[in-house]
Structures are given as structure tokens and as C-alpha cells.
Amino acid sequence: MERWVRRPTTGQALALRCRIVLAAATGATNQQIARELDCNPVTVGKWRTRFAAKRLDGLIDEPRPGQPRKITDEIVEQVIVATLETTPEDGSTQWSTRSMAAKVGLNQTAISRIWRTFGLKPHRVEDFKLSTDPLFVDKVRDVVGLYLNPPDAAVVLCVDEKTQVQALDRTAPVLPMLPGTPARRTYTYVRNGTSDLYAALDIASGKVLTQMTDQHRAVEFRSFLNLIDRDVPDGLAVHVICDNASTHKAPEIQRWLKRHRRFTLHYTPTYSSWLNQVERWFSELTTKKLRRSTHRCVDELRRDINSWVEHWSDNPRPFIWRKTADEILDNLARYLQRINGSVASTV
Known about the structure:
44% of the residues lie in helices and 14% in strands. The chain has 13 helices and 5 strands. Strand 4 (237-242), helix 10 and strand 5 form a beta-alpha-beta unit.
């Protein structure tokens, strides 16, 4: 009981009962204990009697029955089945707590409690896209193997292009942030042209090599490969991870690769750009520079991007890949089983 009194997580009601019993052990009367603990003498007598009869168990609150349950298991099942297998009669695509309550005759709070208990969220929808690449497993192992165990005397580069980067200018000046007020801008904007950005991320150092172009054809990709060839020191093999865009597989690129034997292209599976780490760098560029910037022309956009890239290169930060190929494939297999009963062999 002394430990219960000292413990900060003990409920105040239980601590008071322990103090009453401990004070009674010193020989104090009910009136003396009541004055010392600032409570009613009847309360003191109640808990002294309970302790004398049941010892420590007597100090614990007995279970209280509460109000009888009104919502039966059959009603809960009816709500769950209706949520999962039907849609509202008014043509809506999903149920709300109010529409479901009107259908089954419960109140909105009860519907919300049932949905929360069984993890049902009709208002939410998630997007997914599964790769149909017949070489999906092999490509995942190839790319992840480069991340986790890069070859010796080689540079591993994640390459992709961010197409149609827009030079946007707001129709009114952006208002700066103030205490209690976030920065404000108009939701209307003026388009002042677009530019394409090629980027190559070195997975070991985090450095990024970029090139701005007007288009994203095979000839621009070949020009960017030439830039990489001039930047990477002689004597090092170059492993390039890129997606399955047609510009990356054009005959012109294949001829270029035959002339540059130290280059090896590794393709990510279809619909699997998440395997390319440069996409993570594009996200940094978007959130930290492009999303809040304004540009009155394409040249201004390009200068702004190049300046941001220079600052990134001053303190590059590589992205650390932690998932093994087996972990990725196992996670995907479990997801397939959850959504449609598929098995790992269908990947």
C-alpha cells in the first residue's frame, strides 16, 4: 500500500483508500483520519471495513454492470455487411455515418463506433498499381542488389527526367508569413512555359548531375549520357538505373551503349518508379523549391533550379536503401493476398 501511495501512476481514489488503511494501522479513529485526509468519516469506515473483510482486494472497485447493451451482434453484423457489400439508394458511391444510421435505425455515434472498432473507413480510398512486367522479380533483385551491394570500381547512378516543369507566376504577389498567419498566395497562376530536367543521382555520395532541355527525346537522353561520360572519371564502370521509357531504349541509345562499353543500363520494372532513388530527389526539389516559387520565364526557372542544385551539391545527402529484394517481394505477396487472394506466384 505504501508503494501504491508513492507511485505516480496510481489512481487518486485507490491512493486515498490506501492512506485510510495506513492511518488506521497507527490506531487513529475514523474522525481523526477524516480530518487528516479531508474526507467523510463514513468513507473512512467503509474502506476500513472492506479492507478488514477482503484485504487488498477490498480496496479495488468492484465491476459495475452499467447500462444494458442495446446493440446486438446481429445489428453489428448487419451494419458491417451493408457497409462492405451495398451502396446507398441515392446513388452515392459510399456510405456516411448519417446515411447508414438512417438505413439500420441507429444513431450516428453508434455507426461511427462500429466502423472504428472494425477499421472501416468508407470515405477513404487508396490508389495502387501492380507491375505487369514478366521480369519483375529479376529486375527488383537487380536494382536492389546495386543499392545494397554496389560493384567495386564502379559508379551507380539513378537517372530519370522530370518532364514539363512549369514556370508559374502567381496573379498577385505572394504575401509573407506573419506571426499567427501562414504565407498566402492566390490559387490562380500564369503559365510561362515549360522545361525538362534530366538528373543523375550518385547513390554513394548523394551528388546530382543535371541538365535542362527543351524536350525529352532520345537525342536529349543521349546528350545527357555524354555529360555523365565526361563527368565520371575514366577507369570506372557506370551502372545507370532508369525506367522503361521508350527514349531509354531507342535504337540510337543502343548504338551509343555499344560505343561506350563501360556503361550498363538497369531498367526498373514497369509501373515501379519507386525503385529509382532519383524520384526521391525530385520530391525534395518539388517540396523545397518548385512548389512555392514563382517564375516569369523559362530562363528564370532554369536559373532557379540550377542554383538549388548547386547548393545541394555543396552538402549532398545520399538516400539509404534498407529493404532487401526478398522483403519487398514478401510485402507485395502479402498485399496481393489481402486485396484479391492472389499468391506470390502471380507477381
